Recover the amino acids of this structure.
C-alpha cells in the first residue's frame, strides 16, 4: 500500500531585483516513488497560472542541506544558518527560492521515518517506470 504525506512551506521567491516574494509551496513524499521528493507550487506562484511540481532526488535534498549539491536543473545549497536555497532551471527560466532549513530537515526526517535511506524498493520503482514508459507491456 502506498503512503503519501505533505508539509506546507512558506518560501521566498528571489526576483531579478533581489526582492523576496512570499510563496506557499507543498513538500510531498510518497512511498510510490521513495527515491524522490516533490515540491508543488500553486497556480498563483507560476508564470502560466497552472501550478507546477518539481521532482528530484531525496538524497540531493539531504546533501544540499549541508553543502552545495546538484548540477543541471536542480541545485541546492545552504545559505547561512537558517536558510537553504533551491535553484530550479527550466526552458522558461530560472527560479531561485529560499526555504527555511528547519522545515526541510523536518520534512526529510519524516520521509526517513517512512522509508529509511537505503531501504527504498528500487526494483518496484524501476518496474513502474518501465511499465509507464512502455504502456504496461
Amino acid at each position: 500500500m502506498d503512503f503519501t504525506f505533505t508539509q506546507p512551506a512558506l518560501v521566498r521567491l528571489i526576483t531579478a531585483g533581489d526582492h523576496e516574494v512570499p510563496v506557499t509551496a507543498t513538500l510531498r513524499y510518497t512511498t510510490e516513488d521513495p527515491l524522490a521528493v516533490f515540491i508543488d507550487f500553486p497556480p498563483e506562484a507560476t508564470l502560466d497560472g497552472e501550478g507546477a511540481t518539481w521532482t528530484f532526488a531525496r538524497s540531493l535534498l539531504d546533501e544540499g542541506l549541508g553543502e552545495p549539491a546538484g548540477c543541471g536543473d536542480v541545485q541546492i545549497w545552504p545559505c547561512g544558518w537558517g536558510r537553504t536555497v533551491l535553484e530550479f532551471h527550466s526552458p522558461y527560466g530560472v527560479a531561485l527560492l529560499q526555504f527555511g532549513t528547519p522545515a526541510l530537515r523536518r520534512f526529510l526526517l519524516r520521509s526517513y521515518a517512512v522509508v529509511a535511506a537505503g531501504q527504498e524498493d528500487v526494483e518496484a520503482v524501476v518496474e513502474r517506470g518501465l511499465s509507464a514508459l512502455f504502456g504496461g507491456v
